[in-house]
Amino acid sequence: MAGGITESGEPYSPFVGLVYMFNLIVGTGALTMPKAFATAGWVVSVTLIAFLGFMSYMTTTFVIEAMAAANAQLRWKRREQEEVDDSDSTSEYSDDDVIIRGRPEPETRPILSVQRSGGHVDHFDIVERVEMGQMASMFFNKVGVNMFYICIIVYLYGDLAIYAAAVPISLMEVACGNHSCSAGSVKYNDTDPCWGPVTRKDAYRVFLSVFALLLGPFTFFNAQKTKYLQILTSLMRWIAFTMMIILALIRIGKGTGEGRPPVASISGVPNLFGVCVYSFMCQHSLPSLVTPISNKKRVGTLVLLDYILILGFYVLLSLTAVFCFDSSLLHDMYTLNFTDNCNVLDIPVLRYFLGLFPVFTISTNFPIIAVTLRNNWKTLFHRDGGTYPWVVDRIVFPLITVVPPIVVAFCTHNLESLVGITGAYAGTGIQYVIPALLVYYGRRHLEPVVGRDAINKHRSPFRHNFWVWFVVLWAIFCLMFVTANIILTDTKK
Is the pLDDT score of 472 beyond 90? Predict the structure, then answer.
């Protein structure tokens, strides 16, 4: 959650940190990637996802550097306060003490000047978990802080809309008899019957209503993901993804794959961009992920290895998908391609498992994301010393959190578009713009405090300001490209 400083959590090893980061990044976006690959062409898709993976890795190193800078500033402020307290506890002051305590901007004193004797202290150690919202408050002005919260709120709304649509879609496909072995080559329409006079669209909305009634109330309370629930959902995710890759490889190996994807199709690139940005999203959760790692000496290598593994995983999942299935029959939710085709999977229990897999994993995340969004709304409008009336705190904020994504899900269940738009707009801000500006202003803010000679051991390998502005310009170009494509597409219609 974007907000203040929180507990760093129980420490874990670098290897566990690698696994957690993998599980954090590889989520719902991966299930929408195969169709995006098929519409953009497999060569263009591999090239673009490799480049976007590199860009995401770069901004991840920016966030880690900003976290270290934030820890240094907090440590400096604490030591400065100790100096003031010690001075106040004595009855006599030297002229230097009076001058120091009377300075209007003590931030200009180098941090080494207030370091006490008694051993070396690395001020850039990441020991306190400083969330992105707190870093924004430390390094941005008021306008920048508000823009940060607006950006993350829009992104979380998109996240909830994706989740709210994905679960009813999976339930609809399972309930509407899409498991017959003759259904593999059938493309269903929303108006096709599900149960008698009830159409598939009606069934989708019924399941969406049930989903909202069951999980919506959690927004009015606090919810957190327990360790054992995280282990369970991670295990299910690994089993499901491994099954899909192996089954697709077996079919391709037998020479029965139906996929003939294009090499390149520029019209599919804007949506692919949004899907890829969404699928590499982890920057907003890095503080809670990196801080508990017990040995952070090689955290940079850990992050690089994770990105290489994730890139390879995405490419393997998507390429096996586009060459195994006819591109025109690929579902927005890739798991559904295994529920209606016995040529790929002829074991009913496993077909139901893959069909319902998104239901279990996404349903556990929905309350957590909803509570995070609710708390960000509260933080955005909070004023120092003020409190919210009970009705606003307990009723209004939860309602404005859960109602809009449910309404969006009622209007459309096009997951590919939802993921693409969320990733292309709010995702660009969180993954590119905010990390670049955090590291830039963090460096400027700390230079007069720590001095020019101090070295941030967690500094990004992309330490030159050229990379910061390259990321910002790339983000602007992408937003312009995606927006122009949307306008031109609507004009043609």
Answer: yes
Residue with tokens 């000679």: 453
Residue carrying structure tokens 């405090």: 449
Q: Which range has the top average pLDDT, 115-119, 222-226, 270-274?
A: 270-274
Q: Map residue 482 onto helix, strand or coil.
A: helix
Strand partners, 199: 193
Q: Which residue has the higher pLDDT, 214 or 110?
A: 214
Output the pLDDT for position 466. Answer: 94
Collapse the DSSP code of 134 into the 3-class scheme (helix H, G, I; strand E, B; otherwise coil) and give the result.
helix
Asked whether the whole model's pTM tops 0.85, one would answer no
Strand partners, 6: 129
Cβ burial of 484 (10 Å; 0-12, 13-18, 19+) is exposed
What six digits make up the tokens of 488? 């031109």
Angle between helices 269-279 and 28-40 in degrees, nearest 10: 160
Of the two residues 80 and 435, the one the predictor is more confident about is: 435
Residue 6 phi/psi, 5-degree rounding, is -125, 175
How far is 67 from 291, CA to CA, in rounded Å? 9
Q: Cα–Cα distance between 433 and 427 in angstroms, integer? A: 9
Instruction: Say if CB 55 and CB 311 are below 8 A apart.
Output: no
Q: Report the helix count and the strand count for the chain, using DSSP H and E.
A: 18, 4
What gap in Å lies between CA 196 and CA 120, rounded to an integer? 76
**Helix, strand, coil fractions of the chain, as percent rounded to 5:** 70, 0, 25
The residue type found at 363 is S
The arithmetic mean of pLDDT across residues 413-442, rounded, is: 84
